[in-house]
Design goal:
550 residues; Methyltransferase, Cobalt-precorrin-4 Transmethylase, Domain 2; Arc Repressor Mutant, subunit A; six-stranded mixed sheet; ATP-dependent DNA helicase RecG; helicase; Schlafen_AlbA_2_dom; nucleotide-binding; hydrolase
């Protein structure tokens, strides 16, 4: 019973006894209320599954606790507390915190917190404005649509949804045993009185009914030429299709997204798509599932000659950033996502970007670029062909060994970059500390598939040269630092491609396999020799190619 974004355990001592920490409990309740609600189990230690054997909690203390929490948490609703008994005879308390639908929950001293994964984070400044903004869309899914009942919904759409759920097989046998109407109620498409919700109309309604939604699911697909001029456009603005049918139709008509090239692989050739099918589907489903449905904007899919851009209304949910998206678990439209998982459109919660990173790493492609403007979210995937030798090596590894998803992502990054520092690899994997690399690399290092040099933050990683030999590749990677002549050439080429670059940008692009200080000294040496020109003050200095290198 691990803690999640909707579930937390608290020790008995936090709530009862001589020195309870009621302010901490109130903060947790505020966190859950500002997210999607959740459960708080009081009387179970963090690392335990059950309360202490024989633990007893008097009912009068439970009543007093709820009363005290109510005075410390503003705009927080706690459902009737449940005093439960575990198999070992120990008692514990379950508090169910309802989501704060229209207002922001705070502690009694005016502080606001929100839930990110299994942690409570303070909300201030711009994030507070974002939290207020998100409250308008939090319960869009389950609001009732006036004058639309079960009898008004097309029978064919109801049958389609029920058949997709049963065919996907992603829900329990208990859910699969429900009748069609019970399924609709279970997934919040209908209320218990037979009225359709916004989510119900989105999935089951007629085009006219969907058009009545404040903002439904509308998509535009635009193809650009090499000069980024529009050459073709497909639109889905008539509310004719439910989400599953729309996704299938988009994938069928967006032929440019299915382009592939053949890469020589020794005596054979390997077909590689510009955008792996699993990545493409996952990105589109994420755009559908996480968009803000209370703003008037469409999902835009831009197919350029060198990249794919998918833009959806609404930025990332509060607490999620482009540099934490791989690990953060927070849903904007939880009921919609539940239907996507039940119908097989997407995998389980929190698996989307893991899958995207794995597939791109497996095919030696760059990781996605995520740009959050606050009002919209743009995800960019490059179409560039992978290096043939790198792809051949990764194919060999996948065929000879069994790896976890984390290990495959790490292997893909090491195969592409040959040599990475612990800091650079942690940054690529969105890990805040290099110590967290262990689950990604420990088994690979133990099996001598990955070699290391150095210690702690000064550690460097590279794939074993024996793997290249086994894959019949001539290249032999090394943990030795990059030759100074090659490093200088790499810097010059980078600055030639990116004029007026800051030093930090140069280091970020060319120094993943070389110490930052080494790259900095090389840049200073190139300036001293006249091969690079430096302009601007100390804080705004930019570097460009000198005329002698033009």
């Amino acid at each position: 019973m691990s803690e999640t974004h909707v579930f937390e355990k608290k020790s008995y001592r936090k709530a009862f006894g001589p020195s309870p920490d009621l302010n901490d409990l109130a903060k947790t309740c505020v966190c859950l209320a500002n997210a999607q609600g959740g459960s708080l189990l009081v009387g179970i230690e963090d690392q335990e599954e059950d309360p202490p054997a024989g633990q007893q909690i008097p009912q009068r203390e439970v009543n007093e606790l709820v009363k005290k929490l109510s005075s410390r948490a503003v705009n927080v609703s706690i459902a009737a507390p449940e005093l439960l008994t575990a198999a070992n005879g120990g008692q514990y308390l379950r508090l169910t915190v309802q989501p704060s639908l229209h207002v922001v929950a705070t502690t009694s001293d005016g502080k606001t917190y929100a839930r990110l994964s299994d942690q409570c984070q303070p909300v201030t400044g711009e994030d507070l404005h974002r939290l207020v903004y998100e409250k308008t869309g939090l319960q869009w899914e389950i609001r009732v649509v006036p004058d639309v009942t079960l009898a008004d919904l097309p029978a064919e759409e109801i049958r389609f949804f029920a058949e997709r759920v049963r065919a996907a097989g992603t829900v329990s046998a208990f859910v699969l045993g429900k009748s069609d109407q019970e399924l609709l109620e279970y997934f919040n498409l209908l209320t218990a009185t037979g009225q359709a919700t916004h989510l119900g109309v989105l999935w089951l309604g007629t085009p006219a009914q969907r058009a009545r939604l404040s903002y439904g699911l509308q998509v535009q697909y635009v193809v650009y030429d090499e000069l980024e001029r529009k050459v073709r456009k497909e639109i889905w603005l008539d509310h004719h299709l439910n989400p599953a049918r729309l996704l299938d139709d988009l994938l069928a008509r967006a032929v440019e997204l299915r382009y592939a090239h053949e890469i020589p692989m020794g005596s054979t050739r390997r077909q590689v798509r510009n955008y792996p099918e699993a990545v493409l589907r996952e990105l589109l489903v994420n755009a559908f599932a996480h968009r803000l449905y209370t703003t008037a904007a469409d999902v835009f899919v831009g197919a350029y000659t060198d990249r794919l851009e998918i833009t959806s209304p609404g930025g990332l949910p509060l607490g999620v950033t482009p540099t934490t998206i791989l690990h953060a678990q927070k849903r904007r439209n939880p009921h919609l996502m539940a239907t996507f998982q039940a119908t097989g459109m997407m995998e389980g919660e929190g698996s989307g970007y893991d899958l995207i990173y794995e597939q791109l790493s497996r095919e030696a492609k760059p990781l996605p670029e995520v740009d959050d403007s606050g009002q919209s979210l743009r995800v960019t995937v490059q179409s560039q062909l992978p290096d043939a030798a790198t792809l051949r090596l990764l194919d060999y590894l996948a065929g000879q060994y069994t790896f976890s998803q984390k290990e495959m992502i790490a292997l893909g990054q090491l195969a592409q970059h040959r040599r990475l520092s612990a800091l650079a690899l942690a940054a690529r994997l969105q890990l805040p500390q290099t110590e967290r690399l262990r689950p990604w690399l420990a088994r690979l290092v133990e099996q001598k598939l990955v070699l290391t040099q150095g210690a702690t933050k000064g550690t460097y990683y590279a794939l074993s040269p024996t793997l290249y030999q086994a894959a019949r590749l001539d290249e032999r990677p090394t943990l030795r630092p990059l030759d100074p002549v090659l490093l200088r050439a790499r810097i010059l080429e980078d600055v030639r491609s990116h004029p007026q670059s800051a030093l930090a940008d140069i280091v970020g692009r060319v120094g993943s396999d070389t110490a930052t200080s080494t790259v900095q000294r090389a840049v200073y040496a190139l300036v001293k020799s006249g091969e690079l020109l430096a302009s601007g003050g100390r804080q705004q200095r930019r570097y460009s190619i000198s005329q002698i290198n033009e």
